[in-house]
């Protein structure tokens, strides 16, 4: 069960993948995935699906079905094609009610899989090991009327403790199983087990596709499940609305709290809030937090000037919004990691390689929170202030129509020219005539930053 911590709106950048680009996973390239809608329908109908995770996690596929739909036949099929270790992911609150504790208070598992004490149903089973017995135990666990005394400990089924918020807080099969059961309208308990080859080795993506085609099963990815939830669920809670006069003009500050992880973001709206849902494209800047650039005026990046330009242009337009995303410091790696990357850049590494040298992705940002904020404001169509085509494609995948990419001014100086060249040459940013923009050409300093688009 692949369950390393990987939260969504405040995710662990070391996991290196983001749900807005599920097919960036090299192991999944060329492998046909089925839709999340099909997976939900199959789960509701009592069928199993195969869910695959990332290459930098366990890179495995798990057979998953709803615990409430467990049958001897389905369990036998699952055991026959798997490692045989049957797990039942469930919400922690329900496990507490059933008095099923964690297997150990000191979890040393590489992926922090939250194993509990194993159980069997007290009644209706023989030894507990048969497919029929384990299917019955799974159904008993899924039954909201089950009492603690109706389970024996230890047993042959391993409940797993689900992380609240599901795949949006932790990209594990544990969370995927419960999320799929919930979205199918069933009890929040799943059954999962790793799919293996006849020789006991793990099936990887191409083999999983063949297996699913042979048995008529859907193959989906956790990344796609994350993207589906972000796209279809309301996850932003409007916490405050207040006026914010600035030197650029008057704005309305709308504060948001994400329900899955309590992260906080703000939208600065110029113009009438009610006007934003008119259907007309809204001039929009999605800006990633950068303490060094936005607050301290660092010359190592162009973040501060981009924020200022965005506010000025929105006021000049008469209407628009800046979505300011917290937790994006250093392209999502965090403030201290960014400062560590600076140290490497001082030695000549560029902004991409410095992150990679630290074991972090070149860009760990996602824009799920931006989609939620824009949706709450009633904005579905934007003219996006950015030089980063990837930001355009990411928002588009979340269902935001980017009518126009509005280029932003380039602000090169002797301290950030190498950084901007790296963004252009290695990260695909549209930054024409960089060298010509320098007031006085000197030898560029080593690439020193990396936060924005």
Report helical residue fraction: 25-40%
Query: What structural class is derived from the secondary structure elements?
Result: alpha/beta
Q: Examine the coordinates and then state which fold CATH places here, giving the name of the CATH topology of the largest domain.
A: DHBP synthase
SS strand fraction? 15-25%
Look at the structure and give the CATH class of the largest domain: Alpha Beta
* Overall shape: elongated
- Please work out how many helical segments DSSP would assign: 16
For CATH, the homologous superfamily of the largest domain is named as DHBP synthase
Mean pLDDT across every amino acid position = 88
What does the radius of gyration come to? Answer: 25 Å
State the end-to-end distance.
Answer: 36 Å
Q: Which architecture of the largest domain would the CATH scheme give at its second level?
A: Alpha-Beta Complex
Count of the separate structural domains: 2
The low-pLDDT segments are 1-24
- What is the chain-wise order of helices and strands? HEEHEHEHEHEHEHEEEEHHEHHHHEHEHH
What is the β-strand count? 14
Biggest sheet layout = 7 strands, mixed
Please name the defining characteristics of this protein.
16 helices; 2 domains; alpha/beta; four-stranded mixed β-sheet; seven-stranded mixed β-sheet; 453 residues; Rossmann fold; 14 strands; DHBP synthase
Any overview of this molecule?
The chain has 453 residues and is of the alpha/beta class. It folds into two domains: 36-231, DHBP synthase (Alpha-Beta Complex), CATH 3.90.870.10; 234-328 and 365-427, 3-Layer(aba) Sandwich (Rossmann fold), CATH 3.40.50.10990. The chain has 16 helices and 14 strands. The protein has a seven-stranded mixed β-sheet, with helices on both faces. Strands 6-2-1-7 form a four-stranded mixed β-sheet, sandwiched between helices. Mean pLDDT is 88; it is low at 1-24.
């Amino acid at each position: 069960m692949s369950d390393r911590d990987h939260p969504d709106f405040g995710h662990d950048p070391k996991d290196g993948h983001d749900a807005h680009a599920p097919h960036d996973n090299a192991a999944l390239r060329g492998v046909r995935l089925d839709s999340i809608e099909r997976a939900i329908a199959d789960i509701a109908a009592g069928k199993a699906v195969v869910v695959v995770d990332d290459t930098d996690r366990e890179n495995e596929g798990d057979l998953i079905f709803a615990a409430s739909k467990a049958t001897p036949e389905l369990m036998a099929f699952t055991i026959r094609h798997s490692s045989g270790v049957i797990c039942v992911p469930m919400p922690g609150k329900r496990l507490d009610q059933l008095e099923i504790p964690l297997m150990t208070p000191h979890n040393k598992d590489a992926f922090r899989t939250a194993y509990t004490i194993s159980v069997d149903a007290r009644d209706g089973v023989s030894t507990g090991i048969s497919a029929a017995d384990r299917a019955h135990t799974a159904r008993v666990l899924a039954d909201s009327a089950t009492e603690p005394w109706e389970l024996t400990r230890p047993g042959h089924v391993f409940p797993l403790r689900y992380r609240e918020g599901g795949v949006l807080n932790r990209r594990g099969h544990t969370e995927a199983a419960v999320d799929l059961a919930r979205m199918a309208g069933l009890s929040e308990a799943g059954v999962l087990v790793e799919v293996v080859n006849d020789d006991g080795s793990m099936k990887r993506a191409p083999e999983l596709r063949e297996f699913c085609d042979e048995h008529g099963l859907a193959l989906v990815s956790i990344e796609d499940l994350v993207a589906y939830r972000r796209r279809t669920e309301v996850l932003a809670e409007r916490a405050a609305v207040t006026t914010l006069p600035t030197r650029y003009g008057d704005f309305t500050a709308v504060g948001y709290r994400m329900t899955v992880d309590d992260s906080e973001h703000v939208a600065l709206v110029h113009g009438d809030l009610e006007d934003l849902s008119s259907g007309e494209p809204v001039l929009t800047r999605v800006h990633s937090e950068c303490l060094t650039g936005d607050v301290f005026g660092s010359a190592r990046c162009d973040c501060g000037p981009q924020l200022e330009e965005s506010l000025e242009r929105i006021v000049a337009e008469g209407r628009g919004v800046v979505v300011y995303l917290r937790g994006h410091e250093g392209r999502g790696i965090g403030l201290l990691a960014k400062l560590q990357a600076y140290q490497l850049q001082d030695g000549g590494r560029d902004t991409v390689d410095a992150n990679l040298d630290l074991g972090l992705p070149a860009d760990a940002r996602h824009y799920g929170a931006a989609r939620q904020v824009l949706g709450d404001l009633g904005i579905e169509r934007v003219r996006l202030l950015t030089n980063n085509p990837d930001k355009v494609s990411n928002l588009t995948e979340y269902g935001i129509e980017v009518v126009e990419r509005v280029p932003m001014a380039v602000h090169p100086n002797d301290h950030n020219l190498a950084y901007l060249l790296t963004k252009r040459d290695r990260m695909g940013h549209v930054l024409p005539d960089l060298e010509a923009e320098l007031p006085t050409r000197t030898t560029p300093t080593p690439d020193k930053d990396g936060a924005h688009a």
